[in-house]
Design a protein that fits this description.
Elements (H helix, E strand, L loop, with lengths): L12 E4 L3 E3 L2 H12 L12 E3 L1 H6 L2 H6 L5 E4 L6 H9 L5 H4 L5 E7 L5 E11 L2 E8 L2 E14 L3 H7 L8 E8 L7 E4 L3 E6 L4 E3 L15 H23 L14
Parallel strand pairs: 10-12
Antiparallel strand pairs: 1-2, 1-4, 2-3, 5-6, 6-7, 7-8, 8-9, 9-12, 10-11
Helix pairs in contact: 6-7
Length: 258
Amino acid sequence: GFKSVAAISDSPRMISRSGSFGWDREKSRRAVEKTIGRVEDVPLLRLAWPINTIAEVDADPLLASLMEWATTVVKLPLSVRMESVLADMQKFPPSFLVFAPHVRSIKMRIRWRDGEETVRDIRSVWDRNLVKVSTDENGRDSVEAWRVFHIDHQPSRAALEDAGSTGQRESIRLTWAVPQASSVEIGSFSAFFPLEMSTTLRGILNAPWKLTEDRRTLLEGDFNREILVEVVPKLVESSLPELIGSDPAAYLDLLPAR
């Protein structure tokens, strides 16, 4: 998950009271080319260097203010346009908290170039498998309610071979989050963050899918196919009794279209 910072920064840094270090794409390139000659591309997060914490803090007033209370600060000098990052923060999905129950609140301060500031305070409250996610954005409140269901699955040998060394797990958890709102909507896929794929199964299917390099879509292969064909139907079937309620036909709006 952390390697996604490489999409927006060529020199991410971990500034901590116990010791600081960072990565640097150009510094990595020089070190690699000094050993093996010219290369086309160099992975960012393979070689790290120590950082002088005091010097780094002294050179950055904002970092200094954060280190007054924080133990560790992740600093990401941007390699992309700031506006695109701010726009993504503005659209950050509150549903993230549905799939990360160990995180109960997120607060973001989005400082625009014109001096305007947007403050987003996102919080979750759990009651067994019902989670209510509230968002306060500059005083404007909204609430989403979700029913959340899980199933744990041990991938087959073929699925693990397809997952590759970085995706192999003895057990994976598939989560289905179903919105409480009554309107029928297209469902979606998530790998803790939204993917650019949809499904006619209502709600959100979250799993450690095998993804394309840009982490936007599912890849073809035994790993994802096994989850979709074998695991998703079991999870949906076992969850329906809690979703039907007083209307025995309510489940029809949840299930995939033909």
